[in-house]
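Handout, section B. The chain below has 61 residues.
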Amino acid sequence: MNKYKDIFTKWLALELLKRDHDLHKVIANKKNPDYNVYVFINTEALNNDIPLITKAKKLGS
């Protein structure tokens, strides 16, 4: 497992921060400099929360 996981959407990064996941750094998106990439410490809990958060957003849309 990689040590870090890149998150490309701000709304998902904010939800992960609300759930107390560790943000390592924020870097400029190389493909689209108008946006950022949120680099989180990759943990099993992070990988479990991502599909739960995205599923909840799809159901709420």
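Note. The beta strands are 4-7, 23-28, 36-41. Compare this with the example in section A.
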